[in-house]
């Protein structure tokens, strides 16, 4: 299997506070990988380093065989990484359609605005509505659609379904399952273990800034009780 992203001995933090203490992580092309851990353990900090939003103190980040350690976000996006950030961060004063087109990167047979509406019919019904007029679930759909419009080779979702109504969560998980079937590489952060188990191929567990467990879906099933001790207070 080809490593789409390889992270080695990654150290990072904020000011004098170190958060990551030598993270080793590899994301395999064509698979769904899950990064799990309690709040404050370093999940989002890892994502920020991958996306170029936080410069590491040490270590290397390789994306598609390119050294992207400390590269600016636009270069990471050009390398094919799309982010659905925690908190959605859509443009509230732009319409659904304008949000989707704002960061679009066309590709042959890739994602288009109409294809997003096929995946999320609610967005099609609200294409002229402004971002601030959408529900939380609709905003999350829009955030996913906006990331897909960059036609990424890797889609990263930070807290993909947190705080959403059950029906909206199910719609998003169904869409992620379809994306997996289409061969898109995905890195997920989410707390819903049952839904993650439906689509995840590999798991990484982070505890106090270090990867303390990693394994395949079969490994996770076999050692679930052991793994879950790192996930609960």
Search tags:
alpha/beta; 233 residues; 10 helices; 4-stranded antiparallel β-sheet; Rossmann fold
Structure notes:
With about 230 residues, the chain is an alpha/beta fold. It has a domain at about 1-80 and about 195-233: 3-Layer(aba) Sandwich (Rossmann fold). The protein is about 35% helix and about 25% strand. It has a six-stranded mixed sheet, with helices on both faces. Strand 1 and strand 2 (about 15-30) form a beta hairpin. Helix 3 (about 95-100) packs parallel to helix 6. It is globular, with a radius of gyration of 17 Å. The model has no long low-confidence stretch (mean pLDDT about 90).
Question: Can you summarize this structure?
Answer:
The protein is α/β, with parallel strands linked by helices.
Summarize the topology.
Layout: E1 3-14, E2 17-28, E3 32-36, H1 43-50, E4 58-63, E5 66-67, H2 73-78, E6 81-84, H3 96-102, H4 113-119, H5 121-125, H6 136-148, E7 154-158, H7 166-181, E8 185-189, H8 193-199, E9 202-207, E10 210-216, H9 217-222, H10 224-228
Parallel strand pairs: 3-8, 3-9, 6-7, 7-8
Antiparallel strand pairs: 1-2, 1-4, 4-5, 9-10
Helix pairs in contact: 3-6
| Low-confidence regions | none
State the secondary-structure class. Answer: alpha/beta
* Mean of all residue-level pLDDT scores: 91
* CATH fold call of the domain at 1-79 and 195-233: Rossmann fold
Overall 3D form: globular
């Amino acid at each position: 299997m080809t490593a789409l992203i390889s992270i080695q001995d990654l150290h990072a933090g904020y000011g004098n506070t170190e958060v990551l203490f030598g993270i080793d992580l590899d994301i395999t092309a064509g698979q769904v990988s899950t990064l799990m851990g309690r709040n404050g353990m370093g999940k989002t900090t890892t994502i920020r380093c991958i996306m170029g939003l936080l410069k590491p103190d040490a270590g290397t980040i390789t994306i598609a065989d390119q050294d992207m350690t400390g590269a600016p976000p636009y270069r990471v996006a050009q390398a094919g990484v799309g982010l659905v950030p925690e908190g959605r961060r859509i443009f509230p004063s732009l319409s659904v359609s304008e949000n989707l087109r704002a960061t679009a990167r066309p590709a042959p047979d890739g994602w288009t605005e109409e294809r997003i509406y096929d995946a999320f019919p609610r967005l099609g019904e609200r294409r002229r509505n402004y971002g601030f007029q959408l529900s939380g679930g609709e905003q999350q759909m829009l955030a996913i659609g906006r990331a897909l419009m960059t036609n990424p080779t890797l889609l990263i979702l930070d807290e993909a379904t947190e705080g959403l109504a059950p029906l909206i969560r199910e719609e998003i998980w169904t869409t992620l399952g379809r994306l997996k079937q289409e061969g898109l590489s995905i890195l997920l952060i989410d707390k819903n273990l049952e839904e993650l188990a439906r689509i995840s191929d590999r798991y990484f567990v982070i505890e106090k800034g270090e990867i303390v467990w990693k394994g395949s879906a079969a490994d996770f099933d076999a050692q679930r009780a052991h793994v879950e001790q790192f996930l609960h207070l």
